[in-house]
Write a structure and sequence with these properties.
- The chain is built from 17 helices and 4 strands.
- By secondary structure, it is mainly alpha-helical.
- It has 3 domains: 148 residues, Cytochrome c-like domain (Cytochrome Bc1 Complex, Chain D, domain 2), CATH 1.10.760; 111 residues, Cytochrome c-like domain (Cytochrome Bc1 Complex, Chain D, domain 2, Orthogonal Bundle), CATH 1.10.760; 42 residues.
- The strands form 2 sheets. It has a two-stranded antiparallel sheet with strand order 1-2. A two-stranded antiparallel sheet has the order 3-4.
- Strand 1 and strand 2 form a beta hairpin.
- Helix 2 crosses helix 7, helix 9 crosses helix 16 and helix 15 packs across helix 16.
């Protein structure tokens, strides 16, 4: 086994043991195998970026290194901290980057992001590799002017060339390799060990009676399963699709803003920069990527894994607690011309709302503490 102690097989009982990620070093080419519970499809890995021990080690170092930002203050972990289920530990609605500049989006967790078909709230990055490099050149995240500036910075840091050589066979530093290394590390951030898993595997005492009632509501009156249904082979409890549920649309003139944004993107404006620096354009959601009317105000359905640990909620961080989220859905979201047809008032009682919160708390992984050692090992 490679020296990643936080991924070692723990020997825990039953399905919980199977849910703990183990990395086994294949004999050929030192390729790491991402092991998942039986019946779960492993994350897809690009053919040109198989994970290796050296590549994961490089990606881990890059992920935690604040030197890779314009002012030396921001790392990937600044907004995606292991100590807080890989979301922003500062708890604000949206995240701040270099110089304390605030963006327009709430930082989603990168835990289990390897399973997702696309990345970011609007799906603008088709792979983890693409996701990993965009924040580096966003003016209000890491703040570099362009990929060349990132590479130039890394070339001044003497500890990196040997790591790139170990990972890629030569010490050459390229933006593509930066993305591949960070993505390889992020693909190891898997956790599928929670009370809900044990309950669904047949352990009836794994969750409370309130949570059991919540599970019944989840699949019936509350209609959560419409977008967060259970899929055995991909157990993140998300349809991985985009929906307009009425977040952030109260004062938005969709027609005017979408015309302006579409023209900007058509003229070469960066979607990434528009999404994080233009408050009105940000609320267009998936439309910024597709420029199709059906995607106006639509955002990705988030996974429910560790949802009790990832407040605040929604793409703009506008809901502070799980109770707030349930109240939002109970009233039918916010009406707008492009509201998803499945969003409507639910008529939940106070007890039913409490039962749903109790259920969502059972999606918290039992093994989150093991990720706390990541930052320590990255500094070695």
């Amino acid at each position: 086994m490679p020296a990643f102690g936080y991924f070692e097989w723990s020997g825990r009982r039953g399905l919980a043991a199977l849910a703990v990620l183990a990395l086994s070093l294949c004999a050929a080419a030192q390729i790491l195998e991402l092991r998942v519970p039986p019946g779960v499809l492993p994350p897809e890995v690009p053919a040109d970026n198989p994970p290796t021990e050296a590549k994961v080690a490089l990606g881990r170092k890059l992920y935690f290194d604040t030197r890779i930002s314009k002012d030396g203050s921001v790392a990937c972990a600044t907004c995606h901290a292991p100590s807080h289920a890989f979301v922003d530990p500062r708890g604000k609605p949206t995240s701040a980057g270099v110089g304390g500049a605030l963006g327009t989006r709430n930082a989603p967790t990168v835990l289990n992001a390897a399973f997702l078909a696309s990345q970011f709230w609007d799906g603008r990055a088709p792979t983890l590799e693409a996701q990993a490099v965009q924040p580096l050149v966003n003016p209000i995240e890491h703040g570099f002017a362009d990929p060349a500036a990132v590479v130039a910075k890394l070339r001044t840091l003497g500890d990196y060339p040997p790591l790139f050589k170990a990972a890629f066979g030569s010490p050459e530093i390229r933006m593509e390799r930066v993305g591949q290394a960070i993505a390889s590390f992020e693909r190891t951030l898997l956790s599928l060990d929670a009370p809900i898993d044990r309950f669904l595997a047949g352990a009836t005492n794994a969750i409370s009676e309130s949570a059991k009632r919540g599970w019944g509501l989840f699949n019936s009156k509350a209609r959560c399963n419409s977008c967060h249904g259970r899929i055995d082979v991909a157990p993140l409890f998300t349809d991985d699709q985009f929906h307009n549920i009425g977040v952030g649309v109260k004062k938005l003139d969709f027609a005017a803003v979408s015309r302006k944004a579409a023209a900007a993107v058509g003229s070469g404006a960066s979607i990434d920069r528009l999404a994080l620096t233009n408050a009105e354009a940000s609320e267009l959601g998936r439309f910024l990527v597709t420029r199709e009317q059906k995607d106006l105000g639509a955002f990705k359905t988030p996974q429910l894994r560790n949802v009790a640990q990832t407040a605040p909620y929604m793409h703009d961080g506008s809901e502070a607690t799980l109770a707030d989220v349930i109240a939002f859905y109970d009233r039918g979201g916010n009406d707008n011309p492009y509201l998803d047809g499945g969003i409507r008032p639910l008529g939940l009682t106070d007890q039913e709302k409490a039962d749903l919160v109790a259920l969502l708390e059972t999606f918290t992984s039992s093994d989150l503490a093991r990720f706390a050692e990541l930052e320590k090992s990255a500094s070695k």
